[in-house]
Amino acid sequence: MALSITWLGHATFLLRSPGGKTILFDPWVTGNPASPESAKKLGPLDLILITHGHSDHTGDAVAIGRSSGAQTVAPFETAQWLGSKGLQNVTGMNPGGTLHALGLSITMVPAVHSSSVEEDGKIIYLGVATGYVVRFEDGLTIYFAGDTSIFGDMRLIGEMYQPSIAFLPIGDLYTMGPDQAAKACELLGVTQVVPMHYGTFPALTGTPAKLRELVEPKGIQVLELTPGETAS
Ligand code: ZN
Predict the structure, then answer these.
(1) Among 2, 92, 142, 209, which is most buried by a count of CB atoms within 10 Å?
(2) Which residues of 126-155 are buried (b: 16+ CB within 10 A; e: fewer)?
């Protein structure tokens, strides 16, 4: 089986691994203006990976975690907070750690971003923001950046894990825009990039067209999906 990638809008992705495992990243369906109808009925899942606490990445984590039966993985404090909201089967990690589960290797890596939720008008910080490197059953490796700026250690992630596909935010303002994402592709040494975290709100101005203009001359393919669309 080939890896299949379904974009569920914003930073929410459903992946089916080459070994048939289903993995949901950063679940946000309720109130997500880019969420397709298909995101409302996901069914059973094997794993949910959460990069940081912001509500546009965790909004439906508890509901989907409970209904899907999946194991959820999140940065330590975010995991504790999700647990306090009634999510069971949640594993906290910190950058540098690798979790071996379901035939996959899941390595948490740093991101340059904040991580918090707002409750009763107050901001609660939920530890660090992170990304993930996932090595699938057949050795294929992806890097899911989460929300982040570019940072120099993306070169180290490239050297150590040799991901072939990077999921990078390009919306700008809260994360990288296309310029930094293009340079990130170079540091990571990937052959394919999946843009995310753009177009959801007017403030997210980066576009896949701009990214394509910057990386295609270097032989890097931009996998541009519409919400609900699957590539495999
Ligand atoms: Zn964020």
Answers:
(1) 142
(2) bbbbbbbbbbbeeeebbbbbbbbebbeebe
Q: Is 86 left (phi over 0), alpha (psi -120 to 50) or beta?
A: left
Question: How many whole angstroms from 175 Cα to the centroid of ligand 1?
Answer: 8
Domains of the chain: 4-227 (3.60.15.10)
Which position has the token pair 């530890």?
127
Q: pLDDT in tens for each of the 232 residues of the chain?
A: 899 999 999 999 999 999 999 999 999 999 999 999 999 989 999 999 999 999 999 999 999 999 999 999 999 999 999 999 999 999 999 999 999 999 999 999 999 999 999 999 999 999 999 999 999 999 999 999 999 999 999 999 999 999 999 999 999 999 999 999 999 999 999 999 999 999 999 999 999 999 999 999 999 999 999 999 999 8
Phi-psi region of 102 (alpha: psi -120 to 50; beta: other; left: phi over 0): left
Q: What are the phi and psi torsion angles at 16 (to 5°)? A: -115, 120
Residue 104 corresponds to which tokens in the numbers above?
A: 């996959």
Beta-carbon contacts of 136 under 8 Å, excluding residues fewer than 6 positions away, are: 3, 17, 18, 19, 104, 142
CA of 19 from ligand 1 middle (Å) equals 30
pTM above 0.85, yes or no: yes
Longest dimension (CA), the chain: 49
Q: Kindly report the backbone phi and psi dihedral angles of residue 58, in degrees, each rounded to the nearest multiple of 5, phi listed first.
A: -125, 0
Distance of CA 52 from the midpoint of ligand 1 (Å): 7
